[in-house]
Structure formats: structure tokens, C-alpha cells
Amino acid sequence: MDPGPQHPSTYRHFSPGNAAGSGGGDLLLFLAIPAGRLIGLSASLCSRALSAFVGLLLLPPASLVGALRRAAPSLARAALAFAALAAAFAASLLLGFFLVRRCSVEGPVSVRRPLYFDYTEQQPSAAVSLAGAAASIPAGHSVKVSVALLLPDSDHNRQIGVFQIKAEAIAATGVPIATATRPYMLRYKSGAVRLAQSALAIVPLATGLMGESQSATIRDVLQYREEGNKKKRTGLVRVSLQPRAMTVALPEVYSAEVLVQTALPGWSKALARVFRWSLCVWASGCAYVLLSVLAVCAWVRWRPADRRRVDGRKAIADLGGRDDDGAGELSGDVVVRWRERRGRRQRRIHGGRDGIKRDEGSASAAAVGDLLEPSA
Hints:
GO cellular component, one term: endoplasmic reticulum membrane
Pfam family, one: Seipin
Keywords: Endoplasmic reticulum, Lipid metabolism, Membrane, Transmembrane, Transmembrane helix
Radius of gyration: 52 Å
Low-confidence stretches: 1-22, 323-331, 371-376
Helix content: 55-70%
CATH topology of the domain at 110-263: Jelly Rolls
Structural class: alpha+beta
Region (Disordered): 349-376
Subcellular location: Endoplasmic reticulum membrane
Strand content: 15-25%
Shape: elongated
């Protein structure tokens, strides 16, 4: 049976364009479901907490005091357990930080300092002190010294061409630890190349945005290993400029600086340096578990005596609570029963006394009768 023509909007959600839109709606719905559950859980917890608080407010004072007395030992034990765990956690953190601080490997050092050559000397030199706490080189590290120079592109430097750089590591006592030299040759440019470069950069050169200079970086001029002997620890690094053989001309220098870098001696120490905080976390966790186990063992060891003491105190508290809470009951049923028993006891006592009096009266009457019979 033909249902007849349907409105186009009836099947609109099957179109490809709307399918993409429905996919976005499904994604939003998928993300909204956990949020709704979380909000519902939070609302239920808040309602339970509010109802419990209102119930506590509506309780009578006597019942509230009794409930607090019964819950006081449990609350005290919970507070004691929390204090013990917090103390163990703090102690484990301090122990982990102490172990990492005590046993950790010192990191690599990188020092960059400017050099100021003394041109009054035959071989100009400049020294950099490394005796400070921030720039001291750790023992056992590999040390590399590099030098960077900024030289003017002058005719004097072009005529020199080659010169020598000498680097020395000197101890605080003045004893040389290591010495090395390295030659350096200025980059050559022909007259035509210099003329073309000057023509192309005439505007920056004329305005001062560019300068006619070249930089020289001599890497790893000096390499050595720092010793553990205090008398042979590096105190300063000295850099000298030396002319080539058979000449006395030295290069002109705009500025110079020295770079001192250290490296860890082995891969094991480098690995320990990288994962030092992970080791701190693991050490703190192990210490926390150990302290927790020791606390549990101590609690199990002293638990029987404490339990007997607590049971005795609990019994005394229960008796006191019963006396306080049952005062009305004692004044009711118990007092009535006590009065009934007392009345029965008094009736028994008075009934016995009346029987004795009757027996005594009957005996005296019989004796009087016996005396009267002979006379009759």
C-alpha cells in the first residue's frame, strides 16, 4: 500500500549534509554524558551531606552527645592514623631530597666571559677567573675551552693572515694544569670580491648598519679533565695571542670572549643526572612504604595492651552514659518495682508479727482455762 507522498522534511536527517551535522551533535552528546553523570553524582553527594548535617541539627542534645561520645574513639584513631601517615610522607620526602642532594652528580658548567688583552705585553694575554662558587668546575668533568674573536677587515689583518692562540688552565696556586695552542687563518678575499661586496652594500656600510669585520671562532682550543686534587683545581683560564714565526705583528681585535664548557665523565653519571628527580620519587616512595610497614608492625606489637586499656575506658564510658541517659527510666519502672518489692517485704514482716501475737494470745487463753478447770 502506497503511503502517499511525504513531506521532504520527513527524511531530511538522511541527507549527507545533515549527516555531518548529526555527527557533530553525536560528539557533543558523547562528551555531555560523562559531564551529566559527574554533575548528578556531585549533586547527590551534596544532598546527602546536607541531609546529614540537617539531621545532626535536628537531633536532641542528649542523643547528639551520646553519639559523639561513641564516635570519639573512632575519630581519635582516624586522626592518629592520619597524623602517622602524614609524618611518614613528610619524612620520606625529606629523605628522598636528602639522598638526591647528597648522592646526585653535579651538572655540567658553561661559562662565557669577555677577554681584554693586554697589548703592553710582547704576547698579549687575558685571564678569566673560575674560582667563584658559580663558575667552579666539578671534579672529574671533561673541560673544553673555546675562543671567539671579532676582527676588523683591515689591511693590517690581511697582511698578517695567520696567527696563533694559546690557552692555559692554571690552578689557584699558580701551577699550570693544561696548555694547548691552535693556529687560525683569516678568511681570504680578493680585491675584486671586496670591491663588489662594498658596491652592493654601500648603503648599509655608509649608514653604519654593517661593518667591515669578520668573526673568528676557535673551538676546543684546550681540552682536559678536571682532577679531584684540591691543589690542582682550575683557578683561571688564560688566553694569549702569538705571532707566526719570524714575525712580530699581532692581529687587531675588536672584542673577544672565552667559553668554558664541561661534560659529565660517563654515560652512567649523565643518566643519573637526567633521571635524578625520578630517583627522588622512587626513593621517597620506598621510604614511605618502609615507614608505613614499620608503623603497622609497631601498632600490631602494642595493640593488645592498648586494646585492653581502651576496652576498660569504653566500659566506664558506657556505664556513665547509661547512668546519664537512663536517669528517667530509673525514676520510672525501676523505682516502681523497688517500691513494690519493699511493700511486699514490709507486708511479710508485719504479717509474721501478727501471727506471733495471735499465737501468744491463744496460748495465754489456754493456760487460763487450765487453771480455771480444777477450781470448778
